[in-house]
Amino acid sequence: MNPRHAFFACLQRSPPALFEAALWISAEHDPQVKPEVLLEQFKELEQRVSAGLPMLPVSELAQPLLRRLNDMGYQQDESTPLRPQVALLNKVLERRRGQPLALGLIALELARRLEIPMVGVNFPGHFLLRVPGADHLLDPCGGRRLYPNDCRELLQRQYGPNMPLNAEHLLTSEPIQMLQRLSRNLRQLHLANDDNIDALIDAERVLELGNACVSDYLARASLYQRLDCPNAERFDLEHALLLSDDPIQRIRLTDRLGHLPPNSIVH
């Protein structure tokens, strides 16, 4: 079974094996990555985290778990420019530095194993966590509590003062949504580092996970353009055109399609 097939097999389990699936994403980019070995090694981290938690009901251990991870060196990677290692889970486990989503996936797996209630929240620009029923969110990068005003400030700091906070920003994230977000992050990181082939691997996974948007097809079309694959580029531009509701974007897509060479079929 190749890494892509193993990845989707993880999603077929009940419940989905979120953390293992993320490790198989790393294995797609590096054949030396062995998810089964990393899962075995993860038990040591689980034991170390567990040993440092206070004697409290499990419903009160989410924030202490995140603080414990932070004390052990698991922190947001602030280096620039960012590289794919901030999102590849094997590298984050090794370096103890990563993006909020990668740190959140580690925290969610620890919480699952330790039976601590915790879910992911697909907050724009900065993945967050929550204890079901709590009146606040948690930052996976250290465990800071975020109330609605904090969330509003975080959102506007990233997207500007005109970006309103709405209920959709605070919804619980399903495993497929988290893995699609991870794939989009990696697609962008590989692209920013001029690694078109690895970016294409991530772009394809985004689409295979379903519910892709116009920008997902455009991202892969741009990669095919870089790789001089006009037929594949045309396929994605046509799909983007079908999905687009923006009249100006539709005009631009039609113009771009018109500049592509005729679709060639080899018999």
From TrEMBL:
All copies of domain Protein SirB1 N-terminal, residue ranges: 40-183
Family of this protein: Belongs to the UPF0162 family.
Protein name: Protein SirB1 N-terminal domain-containing protein
